[in-house]
Amino acid sequence: MRYGRQYFREISGSGIGFGYPFDGRCTLGYSRILDTEEVLVALNLDADTRSDYITLDHNLTPPGTRLTDVLHPQHHYTVEDRGGRSAVRVPLPGHTAAILAHLP
Fold this sequence. Notes:
CATH superfamily: Golgi alpha-mannosidase II
Number of strands: 10
Helix content: under 10%
Number of domains: 1
Structural class: mainly beta
Order of helices and strands: EEEEEEEEEE
Largest sheet: 6 strands, antiparallel
Oligomer: single chain
CATH architecture: Sandwich
Strand content: over 45%
Low-confidence stretches: none
Mean pLDDT: 95
Distance between the termini: 17 Å
């Protein structure tokens, strides 16, 4: 997480229309990418539970990739194809975070 480039990610509540967050009551997602590894950080900035889709790099994290929340290793997520883009639905209680990575 220390090295690499950072990219803010588009989100969607429905998995159809994606866009960047525009207020403080949303899920904020960004990726750290180093070489061929992508780590997704998801932050629920809202007090209410959210379950948004967050986009990922389609080449590095293609649909079918299984991601593990390194903060809660019992939580696993599968990347989906959402209209030609890779996205993962991340349910988060209010004011919580997840760090998703592909672990061998």
